Amino acid sequence: FVPTNDPETSYRKFFDLNPAIYQSDNVLVYQLSGVVDGKDVWKLLPQVYTFDNGDVLQYNYDFSYNDFSIFIDANFNLNTLPNTWFNNKTFRVVIVPGYFSSDLNLENMDVLLSQLKVSNEQIIQL
């Protein structure tokens, strides 16, 4: 995540969806928040952080049928933060076909991938 002069692209990373997804599909983004007992811990975005002074920062995302973006939003100047908030962040993006029921477990990425029958070999690194 890097600052730009354009507020629409500042601290935002864009990715194309090729091929485009269907109108009924959904995109979910998870952030790697740590490792416990050798297993990755993933948290569904948005992830909100509140600082002692009341400032709020969040990692969030948006998507269309042709692309998606992951971004950092805050109620203060992000240039004041150390680089650890911007660098070496890992995210997983899951495209959920629209024909799946609303009974999916969206909070737990491992369970969701199992429900969608997605194996580690099918995960693409961007």
Care to describe what's here?
With 126 residues, the chain is mainly beta. The protein has 1 helix and 7 strands, in the order E-E-E-E-E-E-E-H. The strands form 2 sheets. It has a 4-stranded antiparallel β-sheet, with no helix packed on it. Strands 3-2-7 form a 3-stranded antiparallel β-sheet, with helices on one face. A hairpin with a 2-residue loop joins strand 2 and strand 3 (39-44). The model has no long low-confidence stretch (mean pLDDT 88).
Low-confidence stretches: none
| Element pattern in H and E | EEEEEEEH
Largest sheet: 4 strands, antiparallel
Q: Which bin fits the share of residues in helices?
A: under 10%
Gyration radius, in Å: 16 Å
Distance between the termini: 15 Å
Strand percentage lies at 35-45%
Number of helices: 1
Category by helix and strand content: mainly beta
Strand order of the largest sheet: 1-6-5-4
Q: Based on Cα principal axes, name the global outline.
A: globular
The chain-level mean pLDDT equals 88
Give the beta-strand count.
7
Explain briefly what this protein structure is.
The chain is mainly beta and 126 residues long.
Topology:
Layout: E1 12-16, E2 26-36, E3 39-44, E4 47-50, E5 56-63, E6 67-74, E7 91-96, H1 109-115
Antiparallel strand pairs: 1-6, 2-3, 2-7, 4-5, 5-6
